[in-house]
Amino acid sequence: MSEHILLPEGSIEKQTTTLNLGPTHPATHGVFQNILELDGERIMKATSTVGYIHRAFEKIAERRPLYQITPLTDRLNYCSSPINNMGWHLTCEKLLGVTTPKRVDYLRVIIMELARISDHLICNSIVGVDSGAYSGFLYVMQFRELIYEIYEEVCGSRLTTNIGRIGGFERNFTNAAFEKLEKFLDEKTGYPAQLKEFENLFSRNRIFMERTIGCGPISAERAMNYGFTGPNLRAAGVDYDVRVQTPYSSYSDFDFTVPVGTTGDCYDRFLVRNEEMWQSMSIIKQAYQKVQEFKGADADVYHADVPAYYLPEKKDVYTKMEALIYHFKIIMGETEMPAGEVYNSVEGANGELGFYLISDGGRTPYRLHFRRPCFIYYQAYPELIKDGMLSDAVITMSSLNLIAGELDA
Amino acid sequence: MLTNEIIQQKLTEKFGDVLTDWQEPYGMLTFTAPKDLNLKVMQFLYDDAELKFTFLTDLQAVHYPDNKGAELAVVYHLHNWAANVRIRFKVFTDINQPDVFSATALFQSANFMERETFDFYGVNFVGHPNLIRILNVDEMDYFPLRKEFPLEDQTRIDKDDEMFGRG
């Protein structure tokens, strides 16, 4: 890539072309604008513009009680909204000093890892689409549908899930949810078999390898300096994972490995995401096994006891005075939260998703800041695609898993 | 084992008592530095063989309108991955002259984060290579996350405390 032959001075061919890649280009899978300066098909310079779908979440959050902020987090990385939701609940629980029961932690882990799989499978299959292999995308899509059906069983919605509450889940998992989970995990007909097939299609595919190896690479030092986290950082060879570094939601109870790459190019990012899906499946299996060990009354535990923040069940609201009071107070946003400042992060599908919450003791946050991994690593994009071909820029963008919602908040 | 006490001790040794307001909310060491020293503090935290805070996790601002003369706080979250310790430090600046040194020379990742902070709070990061608006439109002539811009119509009374027997 570095052997860029310059034409003789003054020749007409030496002039560069300016090309707008985006904001609404089908190959960018979202609203991104990059103004490229091209010499033939080679990128000399790129300038990124972001902010096309900025929705002022941080401002809106300053007028909302805690539970009304959950739907805002859905719309950050909408390919894996449950992780954002859980990250927000965990932040609130840290502020309020709530400890959740083990069963809640395990159920959360199941949902978060399903979300990670649904995010990675989209990303990796889109890398396939952008490199000209459409079929892989169609193969895995039915399993994203199955994951969405599991969300639907748990919370009622599919994409912007608003799943869970401060303290746990809104209701216990139904048998149908567990049946769907088993169907998903089935070795022969479930996702493992499908992922194996997906890997067979891509991982050692000559065309795919030639297309992605050496495309958009970044070194570990540069990646750290650019604030990379998540699979993109691990592909560059740094084994930083929030689940391991600062375990939340009982992640320390599970046995899993953190895959790392070496060169940080598109191929390594692809392999790291694939391996993470296998690890996620292993975590889900372990968590499901632990959930099944709860018997009798323990198997009905699905939330912690935080009456001031956990919306009571409807049947209690109609029959119990106390539940009615709390229901009213929560719905009207009438609960004062303790003053304090807290930073909490979870391992989102794209990296460290952080929430910095300052409370002055009022009913709404004084200041809430989302650390969106996408926004931070996207600034490396012009450097990643410089001196590469235009078609490599497209594939690099999809393999970074840029999600416009997360980028623009 | 890098503990908050060691970090505080090392920083006090180096900078003396100009670093103030030491706290540990939820276990994270937090302090305030004079705004002229923000880069020096960050560089020291970065270079010191034991401290090694080489990752800038997050950077944002907070507006305290009642804090006259120091209305804007720029908050840095730094992380030492090897020892897995996070710290947070703040620099306060006057809203009429919100000049703070840019961290872009030390951390590439500060580029977008400082642009975002400038965009929403108007903090002027001195030394930033390209300090222009990032998420809002270029024509905007105010800084929307400052507290003087209320989100909802303030004439609404249905969210007033009086409606619920208080205040």
Structure commentary:
The complex is a heterodimer of chains A (409) and B (167). By secondary structure, chain A is mainly alpha-helical. Chain A contains 18 helices and 6 strands. In chain A, the strands form 2 sheets. In chain A, strands 1-2-3 form a 3-stranded antiparallel sheet. In chain A, strands 4-5-6 form a 3-stranded antiparallel sheet. In chain A, strand 4 and strand 5 form a beta hairpin. The radius of gyration of chain A is 23 Å and the shape is globular. The two termini of chain A are 35 Å apart. In chain B, 20% of the residues lie in helices and 25% in strands. The longest helix of chain B is centred in the first third of the chain and has 12 residues. With 167 residues, chain B is of the alpha/beta class. Chain B has a 5-stranded mixed sheet with strand order 1-2-5-4-3. Chain B has a two-stranded parallel sheet with strand order 6-7. The chains are: A mainly alpha (409), B alpha/beta (167). At the A-B interface, helix 1, helix 9, strand 4, strand 5 and strand 6 of A face strand 3 and helix 3 of B.
Question: How does the SSE layout of this entry go?
Answer:
The complex is a heterodimer of chains A (409) and B (167).
Chain A: E1 17-21, E2 33-39, E3 42-49, H1 57-61, H2 66-74, H3 81-96, H4 102-130, H5 135-155, H6 175-185, H7 191-202, H8 206-212, H9 220-225, H10 231-235, H11 242-245, H12 266-292, H13 314-319, H14 321-331, E4 340-348, E5 351-359, E6 367-371, H15 373-377, H16 381-385, H17 390-399, H18 404-408
Antiparallel strand pairs in A: 1-2, 2-3, 4-5, 5-6
Helix pairs in contact in A: 2-3, 3-4, 4-5, 4-12, 4-17, 5-6, 5-7
Chain B: H1 4-15, E1 20-23, E2 29-33, H2 38-47, E3 55-63, E4 72-80, E5 85-93, E6 99-101, H3 110-121, E7 124-126
Parallel strand pairs in B: 2-5, 6-7
Antiparallel strand pairs in B: 1-2, 3-4, 4-5
